[in-house]
Write a structure and sequence with these properties.
Blueprint (H helix, E strand, L loop, with lengths): L5 E13 L2 E7 L11 E5 L9 E5 L8 E7 L7 H5 L6 E5 L15 E7 L3 H14 L6 E7 L8 H10 L3 E7 L7 E2 L3 H8 L5 E7 L1 H14 L6 E5 L2
Parallel strand pairs: 7-8, 7-11, 8-9, 9-10, 11-12
Antiparallel strand pairs: 1-2, 1-6, 2-5, 3-4, 3-6
This protein binds flavin-adenine dinucleotide.
Length: 235
């Protein structure tokens, strides 16, 4: 974990993915090195709660002083309605990157699995781009991304383009509330096809407790150990 320090940083751009998810592009005054998968902490100053801070994964690979955060609006939440009211040019109090949910130093000949729902895809976008584009990983990389409907699939064009460019990248969006030509139901029914026979793999899980716990239990049931499963809980 890096020493925690706070900076003033400006919202440089905002991208609306759908009615409840936005990307915030935030510019620090200085270069802000980080490892793909890390998160930052925003201090909202005053929230009607014990804690005034909330954490957000960095959604893209390192490019200097700019970071992207991909955030879902939580209705009735304390912090996200405030963040969603922010405009370009406004200043945030935000930490330097934190966390150990990162890629291994050495990329080995094994399967890299990524399983998430919703904005849990944010750190995986950074990690997968890092693996394929920067680390030139040729091992199989699987992304299982659970969403309700097609409108909820984040970064679809980019992941589709990566899967065309890199045959070792298998992109599997799974819709739970819409029938379409792709995978349907819950992610559990789909990652099972690859991991049930316990091939050598390192598997990352990110998002909300319920999905992570069930996935972790299933993977343990297939024989995976704690060191082969990395988790980032959002709640
Ligand atoms: C490492 C990490 C990375 C994350 N990355 C993302 C991301 O990339 N995108 C994204 O959309 N979300 C992410 N989250 C979730 C995010 O931090 C917020 O929980 C979410 O945005 C909802 O915030 P809220 O204040 O609107 O909701 P609220 O329900 O008000 O608060 C949500 C969380 O704040 C804490 N909290 C609130 N009140 C209290 C209290 N009284 N006492 C103790 N704790 C309290 C709890 O942890 C609670 O789960 C991440 C969380 C973590 C831990």
């Amino acid at each position: 974990m890096n020493n925690l320090e706070y900076h003033k940083a400006k919202i440089e751009a905002i991208k609306i993915h759908n009615p409840t998810v936005k990307s915030f592009f935030i510019r620090y005054d200085v270069d802000m090195p980080y490892q793909s998968g890390q998160f930052v902490i925003i201090d909202f100053g005053q929230l009607p709660h014990q804690f005034s801070t909330r954490s957000y994964s960095i959604a893209d690979v390192h490019t200097g002083s700019l970071i992207e955060l991909c955030v879902v609006l939580k209705l009735g939440g304390a912090a996200t309605p405030i963040l969603f009211d922010q405009n370009i040019g406004e200043e945030l109090t935000i930490s330097n990157p934190q966390g150990r949910f990162i890629l291994p130093e050495t990329i080995e000949d094994k399967i890299y699995g990524f399983i998430c729902t919703g904005t849990g895809v944010a750190p995986f976008r950074a990690m997968i781009k890092d693996l394929l584009l920067i680390k030139k990983c040729t091992s199989p990389v699987y992304l299982y991304f659970g969403c309700r409907t097609e409108a909820d699939i984040l970064y679809r064009d980019e992941f589709e383009s990566l899967s065309r460019q890199f045959p070792n990248f298998k992109y599997i969006p799974v819709l739970s509330r819409q029938n379409w030509e792709g995978a349907t139901g819950y992610v559990h029914e789909h990652y099972k096809n690859v991991f049930e026979q316990k091939p050598n793999a390192l598997i990352y899980l990110c998002g909300w407790t319920e999905m992570i716990k069930q996935t972790r239990d299933n993977l343990k049931g297939y024989g995976y150990s704690r060191t082969e499963i990395k988790v980032e809980f959002y709640d």
